[in-house]
Amino acid sequence: MSFRWPEFLRKSLIGPRLRAIFAKEMLAVLRDPRARLILVTPPLIQFFLFSFASTMEVTNIRVGVLDLDGGQWSREIVERIEGSPNMREVRALRSDAALKTAIDRQEVIAVLRFGPEFSADVAAGRPASVGAVYDGRRSNAAQIVSSYMQRIVGDVSAQTPRGSAIAVRLEGRGSGTAVRHWFNPNLDYIWFVMPALIAIIAAVSSIAVVSQSVARERELGTLDQLLVSPLRTHEILIGKMFPPIVVGLFNVTMFVILTPLVFGVPLTGSVPLFYLSLFFYLLALTGIGMLISVVSATQQQAFLGMFALTVPMIILSGYASPVDNMPGWLQAITWLNPPTWFLVVSEGTFLKAMPASDILSNTWPLAVQAAVSLWAASALFRSRME
Amino acid sequence: MIDPASHPRLARFAAMMSKETRQILRDPSTFLIAFLLPVMLLFLMGYGVNLDATSTRVGMAVEDDSGEASSLAGAYASSRYFDVVETGPLQRLRKSLVSDDIRAIIVIPQDFGRDVAAGGGEVRVITDGSLPNTASFVAGQAEGVRATWAAQRASDRGMAADPPIDLLSRFWFNPELASRNFLVPGSIAIVMTMIGSLLTALVVAREWERGTLEALMATPIGMGEFLLTKVIPYFALGIVSMALCTLLAIFVFGVPFRGSVFALFLIASVYLVPALGQGLLISSALKNQFVASQVALLTAFLPTMLLSGFVFEIASMPKPIQALTYIVPARYLIPQIQTVFIAGDDWGLFLPDMAILLAFGAVLFGLCLRFTRRRIA
What are the recorded GO MF terms, alphabetically (chain B) (predicted)? Predict the structure, then answer.
């Protein structure tokens, strides 16, 4: 496999030594056909897997009903639950023991329990109550199912004789709140996931490539050959920065094209500004990956170090849960985390048509992180060479 | 010490085991993955990932100067779900919504007071839809504050408005609905996958890459023995790390532990069988550390995060993805580990899952053995 530079790059910009090391580094990354495959395939698989698997909606719900009443009003509620599009199965349970087993074995996530006097109470206008039991092991899903149940019971409640009377007294007032969701009117979860995923996959793939670079040469013993060549230290390091940035740009571009096409996520902001920010993001990631690589003695250490760093980077990025929800001291730590900044840029560019001032105020921290981490990596590299 | 003359097999086995153990103990990166990363992961999951309701930064535009408007504005300001960081005209708040400074705008429109007197009075809420979960949460809470305010006014005028049918919800096992209570035990599944599959994915590939496997093949050791000596130290590492995480979960994060220690150790041991098998298979099939590490990430770590039911509900996924979850070992671990922590021992739930995991393990180790044999021939 040969590597040819575009004419204008060969003529200008970069000196012959840098050109040579760029070509060498690209070959090192792309030479092995399996490694070539591993650079592009996993990000693509992740892209589709994440997009389909990460749903915050709860559908196909299985619930149980223990109806000791069997009257008009309990049947009304059960029928509405059965009619809800999110339900998969409404299982009739016969006893409290069956209720306990169904929840314990995770056969259902919730059970509604109607006491024997339920319909009589409702018909007579007495306050009536329904018991609901949820599986708190899956507390997140249980909470969402509970909000569905609240809505159904609330609707039925408003239609009871007493409910209508109250509505008349309160002059038929509705909920009194008009909600509009900007940037994502239907609150499509995938509109949030895809731009976030771009930030994360860029991080994972570029750090993976760069963290191996120096460690691999050290393990195989070729680093010494590189050091006795006419290349200067900074040229070696610039050469090592080249492949992860190329790989990152390639993967991100693929996703920027696929996201609107496949998932219908709007791209409302400025693409050039996005790429400007992306460039500093990739530089910052490369700096961090380089630090790992320089510190590691073997490829295994580099890989595990990379892994140990990217997992918290992703958790703190705001993808797993909003940064706003974190305690203050942890929010302060997220300021050091490149994906936290770029996630804002990516969401802003796709959904919010974010203006230049906001993009830049989320980009300069990336530039600072890049400068500091690259400087630290090269200082460490030099000191470990002597 | 074992006498090599009387027990040659045993002595060989012991020698290999001590080689592997020493290799593990000498490498600082193993400690990183087995002890430092689990602790870090638990802390991040315990403190960082918070899916529960907290207060949201909002902006408020009060366009009406009636008593009703300022009374409702006061209700929003004192709600524990809202943190009103900015007030002013809507125009300026819009910019803050784009800049991520606030997550929602609450508008109390002109003539609100007059409308309330006439039986209406609508509040407008504009959320930042780019964070869908926060947006729907804010919308729900904003409605709630408005409704509570109205009910309070009604009852002040002597009109009771409590609902005819009351839904009394109880959340079993986790009444306070702390997401920590399922995230922290779930992290233990992630930790065991990391040690079981990620660390072992590198071990055989490393010997291939460095050429030390050929040296080992020249010795009388059998391939089954060879694989076992690779597996046992990592099994021990996995169990020790799991125990550390459990102690942290109980004593630092206050996660309830209602099952038995025996059940927990059995569940963990059974899960490590397919996890180690998978790592070893990747390693012996691919022979290259970089490729093996990436494949392990993709086939072991990611599915455990995404497809195990740990974070995302399996039932809500599209059908083909649901089908895929059946071959993810962690899918069978998550319910067990959540149950043993916050519900208690339930062998009717544990045993079928354990049987499936052991079957996975048998298949994976069988494949491993075939792979190493074929390569040597």
Answer: ABC-type transporter activity
Give the CATH number, domain containing residue B133: 3.40.1710.10
One domain for residues A158 and A194:
no
Dihedrals phi, psi of A77, to nearest 5 degrees: -65, -45
Query: Same domain, yes or no, for B22 and B76?
Result: no
Check whether residue A319 and residue A375 sit in a common domain: yes
Shared domain for B299 and B363, answered yes or no, is yes
Reported as a single tens digit per residue, the pLDDT across A227-265 is 888 878 888 888 888 888 998 999 999 999 999 998 889
CB within 8 A of A185, min separation 6: which ones?
B129
- The listed range with the strongest mean pLDDT (A197-201, A217-221, B32-36, B146-150) is A197-201
Count of CB pairs separated by less than 8 Å, A with B: 326
Tell me if A272 is assigned to some domain: yes
Q: Looking at the 3D structure of chain B, how many domains does it have?
A: 2
Does one domain contain both B120 and B183? no
Q: What is the CATH number of the domain that holds A109?
A: 3.40.1710.10
Please indicate, yes or no, whether residues B210 and B112 belong to a single structural domain of this protein.
no
- Of A32, A129, A304, which is closest to B29 when you measure between CB atoms? A304
Place of tokens 């849960």: A321
B285: in domain: yes
End-to-end CA separation in angstroms for chain A: 35
Which residues form the domain of A124? Answer: 61-169
Task: Say how many C-beta atoms besides its own lie within 10 A of residue B117's C-beta.
Answer: 11
Contact B150 A173 (CB under 8 A): yes
Together in a domain, B210 and B133: no
A193 assigned to some structural domain: yes
Indicate the pairing of strand A110-114 with strand A128-135.
antiparallel
Task: Determine contact, residues A134/B172, Cβ cutoff 8 Å.
Answer: yes
* Host domain of residue B84: 56-156
Give the single-character DSSP code of A171.
T
Instruction: Rounding to the nearest 10 degrees, give the CA dihedral for residues B358, B364, B367, B369.
Output: -80
Mutation target vs A (from B31, B51, B166, B171; most A CBs, 10 A cutoff): B171
Same domain, B28 and B110: no
* Sequence-separated (6 or more) residues with CB below 8 Å from residue B73: B60, B62, B108
Spatial distance between the Cα atoms of A362 and B64, rounded to a whole number of angstroms:
36
State whether A210 and A352 are in the same domain. yes
Mutate to test the interface with A, among B106, B125, B167 (most CBs of A within 10 A): B167
Q: Which residues of A touch B339 (CB under 8 A)?
A: 137
Judgement on whether residues B151 and B261 belong to the same structural domain of the protein: no
Average pLDDT over every residue of A312-318 = 88
Q: Could you tell me if residue A175 is inside a domain?
A: no
With beta carbons less than 8 A apart as the criterion, state whether B199 and B38 touch: no
Q: In this structure, are A212 and A330 located in the same domain?
A: yes
Cβ A136–B124 below 8 Å, yes or no?
A: no
Residue of A134, A169, A216 with shortest CB distance to B172: A134
| Alpha carbons B181 and B49: distance in angstroms, whole number | 12
State how far residue A15 is from chain B, nearest Cα, in angstroms. 31
Same domain, A217 and A295: yes
* pLDDT tens by residue, chain B, 377 residues: 566 677 777 888 888 888 888 888 887 777 788 888 888 888 888 877 766 657 889 999 999 888 889 999 999 999 888 999 989 898 899 999 998 889 999 999 988 888 888 777 889 999 998 888 888 888 888 888 888 888 788 777 766 666 778 788 888 887 777 778 888 888 888 889 988 888 888 887 888 777 777 777 777 777 778 888 888 888 999 999 999 999 999 998 888 899 999 999 999 999 999 999 999 999 888 878 878 888 888 888 888 888 888 878 888 788 888 888 999 999 999 999 988 998 889 898 899 999 999 999 999 999 988 877 655 54
Q: Distance, in angstroms, between A23 CA and closest chain B CA? A: 20
Question: In terms of domains, do A113 and A200 share one?
Answer: no
User: Does residue A189 sit in the same domain as residue A150?
Assistant: no
